[in-house]
């Protein structure tokens, strides 16, 4: 049984939720107005009200809420589908996430590349590796490998995601106790105008034409074996 009922207009505009973030933060997040589900409800409700595409809904359903990280994954998928498509019904992707974050739930869902299908791996960068990334790899997000079912060859693209403009436009990092959800919600809405423009954020860092020149690496899953460092193999760190 419910012991509390809260009526609150959570529309993401200056007349409602944006009118006073401090009050909204107190009423909703500090007081847990929606029982701890505040960010889930606010982001999903606003996205649905704005008629976002069905495949984006599919992605944030799996992730449990909409956040800029999920949208980044969606944009990466749109870039891959437009510029790096599969050419045969039996072709497939293998995704190596470096490093993993919210984007991966969107990529797994929309590219149908999952660990259960032997199509997904992750590599967690430590602080030293992050500091050693080459300048061109500073925005490293993922490596998308594509398998040609006819020739049995693999090729790949090292992909980065540029957050610069989106953070500048959406109050990212302001020193308030509510900035963590304010900036993410604003960025959620802001990104909706760019869902068909992934090229503004997604960049190819490096092309991998084959595994022929890499010792003991014949397929992408070899890259997640113990002791293997794909950052070194693909010359992404100094």
Description:
- This protein has 238 residues and is of the alpha+beta class.
- Helices cover 36% and strands 14% of the residues.
- It contains nine helices and five strands.
- The mean pLDDT is 95.
- It comes from Candidatus Magnetoglobus multicellularis str. Araruama.
- This is Metal-binding domain-containing protein.
- Residues 63-121 form the Formylmethanofuran dehydrogenase subunit E domain.
Domain unit count: 2
Shape: elongated
End-to-end separation in angstroms reads: 58 Å
Structural class by secondary-structure content: alpha+beta
Amount of helix: 25-40%
Radius of gyration (Å): 20 Å
Task: Give the count of helical stretches.
Answer: 9
Spans of 5+ residues with little confidence (pLDDT < 50)? none
Strand order of the largest sheet: 2-1-3-4-5
Q: Would you count the extended β strands for me?
A: 5
Beta-strand fraction estimate: 5-15%
- Average pLDDT works out at 95
Sheet with most strands: 5 strands, mixed
Secondary-structure element order, N to C: HHHHEHEHEEHHEH
In short:
The chain has nine helices and five strands, in the order ααααβαβαββααβα.
Secondary structure layout:
Elements: H1 21-30, H2 38-49, H3 54-63, H4 68-83, E1 92-97, H5 103-111, E2 120-122, H6 127-132, E3 140-148, E4 153-161, H7 164-169, H8 179-191, E5 202-208, H9 230-233
Parallel strand pairs: 1-2
Antiparallel strand pairs: 1-3, 3-4, 4-5
């Amino acid at each position: 049984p419910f012991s509390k009922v809260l009526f609150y207009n959570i529309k993401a505009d200056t007349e409602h939720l944006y009118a006073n973030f401090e009050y909204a933060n107190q009423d909703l997040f500090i007081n847990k107005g929606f029982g701890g589900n505040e960010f889930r409800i606010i982001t999903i409700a606003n996205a649905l009200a704005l008629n976002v595409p069905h495949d984006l809904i599919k992605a944030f359903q799996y992730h449990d809420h909409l956040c800029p990280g999920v949208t980044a994954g969606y944009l990466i998928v749109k870039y891959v589908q437009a510029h790096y498509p599969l050419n045969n019904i039996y072709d497939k992707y293998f995704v190596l996430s470096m490093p993993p974050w919210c984007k991966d739930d969107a990529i797994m869902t929309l590219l149908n590349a999952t660990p259960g299908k032997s199509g997904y791996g992750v590599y967690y960068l430590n602080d030293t590796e992050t500091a050693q990334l080459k300048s061109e790899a500073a925005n490293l997000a993922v490596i998308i490998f594509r398998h040609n079912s006819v020739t049995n060859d693999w090729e790949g693209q090292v992909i980065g995601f540029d957050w610069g403009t989106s953070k500048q436009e959406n109050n990212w990092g302001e020193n308030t106790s509510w900035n963590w959800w304010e900036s993410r919600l604003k960025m959620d809405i802001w990104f909706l105008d760019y869902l068909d423009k992934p090229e503004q954020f997604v960049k190819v860092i490096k092309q991998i034409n084959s595994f022929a020149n890499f010792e003991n690496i014949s397929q992408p899953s070899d890259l997640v074996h113990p002791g293997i460092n794909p950052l070194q193999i693909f010359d992404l760190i100094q």
